[in-house]
Please model this.
Amino acid sequence: MSNIFSKIISGEIPCHKVAEDDLHLAFLDINPVAYGHTLVIPKMGIDYIFDMSDESLTNLMLFSKKVAKALKKVVDCKKIGVSVIGLEVPHAHVHLIPINAIQDMTFGKSIGISQADLTALANKIATNF
Ligand code: AMP
Model:
């Protein structure tokens, strides 16, 4: 099914890429709830994360772990929070969010960040991946 994330995978629309392998892509959320808010997606087209096979879900989480480690090196925070929602975009994805307090995981807000700052941040995380 075509959606905004499948178009990012195919290169039809751009993203602030932080990491990629054969099966996954990680890029910055365009409306971050916290500085460094990153999305990790499988390249296969599947909507609901818990419809993924055990192997694919394990691979997604292991790739997310590698991205989280790179993210934590770049963004000053206590931990990288993990969340799965999927109500807006029907393509499985994991939210990785640098957190210092529980409020940093609150959705429905955006910190507001320029495209230039997103590009610079993505490059920094990519370098540490
Ligand atoms: P949800 O499907 O509810 O987990 O939310 C989808 C997330 O994708 C939201 O946090 C959006 O800000 C984010 N998002 C939507 N379009 C893009 C895009 N083109 N690039 C990066 N992030 C996006």
Notes: The pocket of adenosine monophosphate is lined by residues 4, 15, 27, 29-31, 39, 85-89 (CB under 6 Å).
